[in-house]
Design a protein that fits this description.
Order of helices and strands: EHEHEHEHHEHHHEHHEHEH
Structural class: alpha/beta
Helix content: 40-55%
Oligomer: single chain
Largest sheet: 8 strands, parallel
Bound molecules: phosphoenolpyruvate
Distance between the termini: 15 Å
Number of helices: 12
Amino acid sequence: MRKHIVAGNWKMNNGLSQTQALISDLKKQIRTSDAEVMIAPSFTNLWQAFQSLRQDDIEVVAQNMHFAENGAYTGEVSPGMLKSIGVQTVILGHSERRAYFNETDESLAKKVDAALANDIRVIFCFGEELADRKSGKEEAVVGSQIKNALFHLGVNAFKKIVLAYEPVWAIGTGETASPEQAQDMHAFIRKILADKYGSEVADNVSILYGGSVKPNNAQEIFGKPDVDGGLIGGASLKAEDFFAIVNAF
Ligand code: PEP
């Protein structure tokens, strides 16, 4: 049985007091759920978020990390640093990191290896741009992003990966892939995983959809058989909306 996961990516939003306020709102909304629930505050608020959510069923995850363990990388945060405060999951390869911080399949492969070497689970993001979809290249683009960054992993390492399909044209734009487009892509992803790692591994990997998931469309998207949850940006900044999405399962 695949895990259902709903993860809120707060991006570069919320200082300390806003983090505390949003977490206190989230706590009021927590219900028993079939889905694993995660939030990803910025680095400066991770520790506070951990302290506040110690007793609760919300995992605190990081939005990014460097691949090196330490050294002369001004402004960066290492896997060991995340581990030292209790982080067990990191988001890697978000399209904003790829677009604004020059992250490539090659640098992401190194980050994936570093996370797994530190026993940190990875939510690996990828997705095509609008021009790719318009020219019918979406499967080729997504397939190569996955192969280049992940297919060097052995089966056991791969089992620690959660995938997040995020068509770039749907992130923060208010436009979503239709539930059918999401399902088609997720089924394609599962097929290439089955070809590489076998159908048992492919059947067990959670594949999340991200791109303007809101309370009013979550149920239809999550209702598709190969969609195992969501990576939520804008709607994760309001506790009520976020939990309406979690409860869509
Ligand atoms: C995201 O940042 O991963 C995302 C999906 O954002 P939004 O939900 O705002 O489109």
